Amino acid sequence: MIKKQGLGSGVQGPGRKYLFFWPLAFGLFLILPLIDHSAYHQDVLVTAGIYILLALGLNMIVGYAGLLNLGYAAFFGIGAYTCAGLNLAWHIPFWLALPVAVVVTGFFGFLVGLPVLRVKGDYLAIVTLGFGEIVRIVFNNLDPITGGPNGLLGIEHPVIFYPVFNPSLIWKRFDFGVSSFPYYYLVFFCVILVAYFSLRLDRSRIGRAWIAVREDEVAAGCMGIPVPQVKLLAFGVGSSIAGIAGSIFAAKQGTITPDSFDFILSVMILAMVVLGGMGSVPGVILGGLVLSILPELLREFSIYRMLIFGLVMILMMIFRPQGFLGNVRRKYELTTR
Amino acid sequence: MSLLRVDNISKSFGGLKAIQNVSISIRPGEIVGLIGPNGAGKTTFFNCITGIYKPDAGTVMFGDYEQEITGLVSYMISWRGMARTFQNIRLFANMSVLENVIVGAHKHIRSSLVDLLFPSKRSYADEMKFVRRAHELLEFFGIDRYANDLASSIPYGSQRRLELARALACEPKLLLLDEPAAGMNPQEKQDLLEHISEIRRQGISILIVEHDMKVIMPLSDKVVVLDHGEKIAEGRPEEIQKNPLVIEAYLGKQ
Ligand SMILES: Nc1ncnc2c1ncn2[C@@H]1O[C@H](COP(=O)(O)OP(=O)(O)OP(=O)(O)O)[C@@H](O)[C@H]1O
Ligand SMILES: [Mg+2]
Q1: Across the strands, what pairs with B82?
Q2: Contact, A162 vs A174, CB < 8 A?
């Protein structure tokens, strides 16, 4: 008897009970800015969305392919500077600069992947950390192109045209401007798209190859998985997602400076992936949301803010090392042991 | 005409000569047994052929046209049609049993990143073909009921069979088995014998390392004996059992 079932319906886990939760969360976040008009809340959520995009991208590298990357903020920076640079130099609108930034960032991910193929584990962490620092220093010192420590100013906000019948057809111009509201939906859409892509990857030939390499590189090679190519692809694709986040960031802020892309950010994004649950898309989204909102909630504790934040992280790793929603496959392992 | 021809390969680790000038050949459809005391170099020999180690000297020829594969990396050798199992089980522990098998078919599945963003009927049908094939392989080994369990959670004997199923998903011409019966009970060993015979009937050649003579002797067309990294005997199973050199290697000098 051959069961007719896709891979998606394959692995079951305790998380299955809570599936109804995701449409609810989707609906809530879809209408949230229409109910809650607080500019502060919207702004926090846009930032959270950008972090979630970054965490989803890093999850492909660290969570799926198991390649530790401590320099991910550099790719965020490359995406932001590419989008900003194209706009400032040639007035290329956001919607065209975005895909270019994605490709450029992916290409840099690929380049970093090349030397990284020869190193593993801790060494890989050092190499990526070094790359992250180099990129930040280049942004800081390549004044003619990157504006040095002052960064790039005056990046245009995205503009869209929409049709109105009044009574004949005319195209109206809408500038995203400085309010968070339109960016909220832009980020929301991108998060959904990247999450969908990640979930599809997880159940595809390519995602399976990444996970197999993470689980056992030697066995994966013997099963015909071209390990070097597969790792490079993970680096390239995972990094290109940072290009999306970087472009939105640049377009929203209107100004970017090198210190927005420092080592601490790399660590924060990694923490989101680990805290949420490596390899789990819902987990990583939750991790990103919690880690970007928590520091805001803790503002009233002022100086104790980072202390509490750190404490929460430590407790989490002691009592729930697999993260909020560890990968379903992983979760299975932990319950059967 | 041989499917695999290994000529005088050697491999040392520091001062230790793990294998020295070992030659063997396997004809299409043949089952060759590789035996020898612990530490004789059997696993090292496998690793040299499958590209995990690069042999220090010697050549490995493989395939219908006897192409040289010495020193190629393991995925390239796998693509030429060689698959293996491991002495200490190396499954993808955090993947499901079914996914483990499908990974074996990686090379045969056609799907690209574009198919991920825009799912097509064709890529879905292609994927389903391999899902069905994987279920068939699991059924062949009687472990299909575990299809959706985590590979590390199934019983030990079934994990050994899963390694076999995963290797077969590569559609190999030659299958290398490193102690497939280790840790199995007599009934499981009997099933394994039948499975291996059936695999051979499908035209796949097999090189098998095994300590249990009740497995090696009935299966093998030819047995090769290694001791301290050197080939000390080669011949039909019944000849090998009587060979004084082999008896000495196993029992020590009288
Ligand atoms: N990576 C390595 N580094 C150093 N020495 C090694 C390595 N791999 C194997 N050896 C040594 O090479 C020799 C042969 O080992 P090998 O594992 O090939 O033996 P074997 O015949 O498979 O033994 P067993 O029956 O115990 O599996 C042993 O002395 C072993 O310690
Ligand atoms: Mg061995």
Answers
A1: B174
A2: yes
Give me the pLDDT at residue A18, please. 62
Which residue's entry shows tokens 């989803």?
Answer: A56
Pick among A199, A216, A222, A332 to test the B interface (most B CBs inside 10 A): A222
Cβ neighbours of B78 in A, within 8 Å? 221-224
CB A275 within 8 A of CB A291: yes
- CA A187 – CA A194 distance, rounded (Å): 10
Q: Name every chain A residue with its beta carbon within 8 A of the beta carbon of B170.
A: 223-224
Average pLDDT over residues B191-205: 94
Question: Given a cut of 70, is residue B135 above it in pLDDT?
Answer: yes
Q: What is the C-alpha separation between A210 and A67, in angstroms, rounded?
A: 10
Element housing B13 (H / E): strand B4-13
- Which one of B52, B94, B124 has the shortest CB-CB distance to A330? B94
B196 contact partners, CB below 8 Å, separation of at least 6: B31, B177, B180, B206, B208, B219
Which amino acid makes up residue A2? Answer: I
Return the ligand 1 atom nearest residue B44 CA: 18
Alpha-carbon dihedral sign for residues A34, A36, A41, A45: negative
- The pLDDT of residue B202: 93
Give the model confidence (pLDDT) of A268-305 as tens digits. 999 899 888 888 898 999 999 988 888 888 777 767 77
Report whether CATH 1.10.3470 matches the domain A39-336: yes
C-alpha B203 – ligand 2 centre gap (Å): 26
Residues 6+ apart with CB under 8 A from A46: A180, A183, A184, A187, A252
pLDDT tier at A11, thresholds 50, 70, 90: very low
- A199 reaches B (C-beta below 8 A): no
Q: Give the bridge partners for B224, in sequence order.
A: B34, B234
What is the rounded average pLDDT for all residues in chain B? 91
Answer for the pair A107, A78: CB distance below 8 angstroms, yes or no: no
Report percent pLDDT > 70 for chain B. Answer: 99
Query: CB-based contacts of A47: which residues, under 8 Å, 6+ apart?
Result: A292
Q: Which residue among A219, A226, A332 sits closest to B150, beta carbon to beta carbon?
A: A332
Supply angle C-alpha A206, A81, A147, rounded to 5: 155
Give me the architecture of the B1-81+172-254 domain, per CATH. Answer: 3-Layer(aba) Sandwich (3.40)
What digits encode the pLDDT tens for the residues A135-172?
999 998 988 888 888 888 888 888 888 888 888 888 88
Residues of A in contact with B131 (CB under 8 A): 5-7
pTM: 0.89
Nearest CA among A311, A227, A71, A62 for reference residue B103:
A227
ipTM: 0.92
